[in-house]
Amino acid sequence: MIPVVAADETALLAHHLRRMRVVWAVFIATVPVAAAVGFGAPHLTTDVGSPLIVTLLVLAMSLWVAFTAERDARLRLDRAKRAFAVHGDASRLLRDHWVVLLVVLLRLEIIVLGGLVVAVWGVGPRIGLCFALAGGLLLALAWPTERKARVLLQRARELLP
After folding, report:
1. Which residues of 83-112 are buried (b: 16+ CB within 10 A; e: fewer)?
2. Any idea where the domains of the chain sit in the sequence?
3. Average pLDDT of 50-78?
4. Where are the alpha helices (DSSP H) in the chain?
5. Which of 44, 98, 118, 123 could make an SS bond with 128 (beta carbons 3.0 to 4.6 A apart)?
6. Is residue 68 packed enough to be buried (19+ CB in 10 Å), middle (13-18) or exposed (0-12)?
């Protein structure tokens, strides 16, 4: 079931989705760039440790980011919905939604850039490509849809006094 949005909010929602999708497209475009740079960059050494140590550190960081990104986004959206219950301004709620998406994309971008680190300082570009593609898959799952925005508006309205 798709929630109903007031007619005056239709244009606001369309603008919101357009802005979110542009930001999403910029982030998803970094995946092939990071992969290409990873294959083209020379392999460097580091004082952190062996390439295996670097790769394991990036793996640990990537797993932490992947497992906590959704929880963090959910908490931020809950705060935005509670704030909406006080101010009742749909444009502010959608702006907060955009900020949440931006934070999630930034967090997931860390995994993509981790692939670049693995390619340059870790075990090599093939494994780095796996990290970049995993980050890209998680970014793809964050694609903003009209349904998600409408559900957010509906659930936030349920909190209004």
Report:
1. bbeeeeebeebbebbbebbeebbebbbbbb
2. 7-157
3. 96
4. 7-40, 51-87, 90-121, 125-141, 146-157
5. 118
6. exposed
